[in-house]
Design brief:
187 residues; Arc Repressor Mutant, subunit A; Rna Polymerase Sigma Factor, Chain: A; 71% helix; mainly alpha
Length: 187
């Protein structure tokens, strides 16, 4: 999605043409809504959060120094806002034990696959914030390691370590709850 249109729009807005921001909103409303939804799991709330993020991004455009890509900077601003929102609201998360109270994986039909997908989403939601954010950006938003690390304000090696630990936690918890072979705990 990164293109010269974003940079041109940013420069136009900073120069006083606030109408140029409409192009940014049009190009990025889907990805920002999806990111917000990953935080709150409520469509209405995600729409409000995305709208608030665009307002914050608009106000912060003069601070964009073009040291990173616009999309990375924008996602970083949005992530920080969504984190703050999440800390203020503290959503009711389902405990991982309750979320994974399902029968064996087996040959599931469409309804069961949907249930399994939701179980995995709930398991990701139950991860500590630093692991959940890494998983969401890397897997759900398909960012590469460098871009996801930059968005989170961490080093690529740190992101890789968080992804490794998050995958391990997910695997252990899913295997334990689904009755498959045990996986040793991390030390």
């Amino acid at each position: 999605m990164e293109n010269d249109e974003d940079l041109a729009a940013v420069r136009a807005v900073v120069a006083g043409n606030s109408a140029a921001f409409a192009g940014i909103v049009e190009r990025w409303q889907g990805p920002l809504f999806n990111l917000a939804y990953r935080f709150c799991r409520d469509r209405s709330q995600a729409a409000d959060m995305a709208q608030d993020a665009f307002l914050k991004i608009f106000r912060a455009l003069p601070s964009f120094r073009e040291q990173s890509t616009f999309s990375t900077w924008m996602m970083s601003v949005a992530m920080n806002m969504f984190r703050s929102h999440q800390r203020r609201t503290r959503p009711n998360l389902v405990a991982l034990d309750a979320a994974l109270d399902l029968p064996h994986w087996g040959n599931w039909g469409l309804e069961e696959r949907t249930s399994r997908d939701e179980t995995v989403r709930l398991a990701v939601q139950a991860l500590p914030e630093k692991y959940r954010e890494a998983i969401v950006l890397f897997y759900f938003h398909e960012m590469n390691v460098d871009k996801a690390a930059q968005t989170l304000g961490i080093r690529p090696g740190t992101l890789k370590a968080r992804l490794h630990r998050a995958r391990g936690r997910l695997e252990r918890n899913l295997r334990r709850r689904l009755g498959t072979e045990p996986v040793p705990e991390e030390t």
